[in-house]
Amino acid sequence: MNIEAIGKIEVGNHTTATFGGWTFNLDTIWSSLAAAVVILLLGLWMRRKLTSGVPSGIQLTWESAVSTIENQVEQSMGLRTAPFVVPLAVALFFFILIANWIEIIPTHEKFVAPTSDANTTYALAILVIVLMHIVSVRRNGPGNYVKHYFRPSPILFPINLIEELVKPFTLALRLFGNIFSGTILIALIGLFPYWLLWAPTALWKSFDMFIGLIQAFIFALLTILYFSFQLQTEEGH
């Protein structure tokens, strides 16, 4: 491995197409579609295997994930307060998990992790934050929604406003940074001699899968916590 070879590694490079003045990252789009198809097929498979007796492995995995997220929602705000947060967090968790793991499949770089593209993570974060504010206005009313920016003191309004504005950026960049760093390390590992390549590749891919799992859970958990903060009533504040 030499410095010149490392300098030739291209990061953030995508297969693109331009339509109507907009540039689309095609590799991110088809990887996202592939992740969605995988989730859909797994869901159909689980439905066929669904039983009230001894659960199959995929049913057990699903029930464990749903149960964990339900417990988090119950502890944060109560299931009766926002039952819709459970399917939202579950959907985000499984989509991000598959999106994080899809690059591990040996497809000669035909599939990339969609979450290593900041456009994907920003889209997911904006979806969560916009929906959170819409629900907050509908539940607490416009008056209470505006008032929470001035609590516990009106002097804190600028800080509270900045905190809300940076939420989608922190939510998106946390996921993007962790997954994108894994993409860079895989590229660097590819510069190892072929006779030594298998060892670091196997170790890193195992670690990368673990990181992908943790990041999917953190994104789902932060989604729950953000909704919990916004859905507090005036009495709660």
What does this structure look like?
The structure is a single chain. This protein is mainly α and 237 residues long. It has one domain (3-38, 84-230). Helices cover 70% and strands 3% of the residues. It has helices at residues 3-7, 26-49, 57-76, 85-101, 118-147, 157-189, 194-230; strands at 16-19, 22-25. A hairpin with a 2-residue loop joins strand 1 and strand 2 (22-25). Helix 3 (57-76) crosses helix 4. The termini are far apart. Mean pLDDT is 80; it is low at 1-9 and 233-237.
List keywords for this structure.
disordered C terminus; two-stranded antiparallel ribbon; 237 residues
Briefly summarize what is shown:
This protein is mainly alpha-helical and 237 residues long. The protein is built from seven helices and two strands, in the order αββαααααα. The N terminus and C terminus are likely disordered.
Written as H for each helix and E for each strand, in order along the chain, the element string is: HEEHHHHHH
Rounded to the nearest angstrom, the radius of gyration is: 21 Å
What's the story with the biggest beta sheet? Answer: 2 strands, antiparallel
Measure the end-to-end span.
Answer: 58 Å
Class by SSE composition: mainly alpha
Report the principal-axis shape. globular
Topology:
Blueprint: H1 3-7, E1 16-19, E2 22-25, H2 26-49, H3 57-76, H4 85-101, H5 118-147, H6 157-189, H7 194-230
Antiparallel strand pairs: 1-2
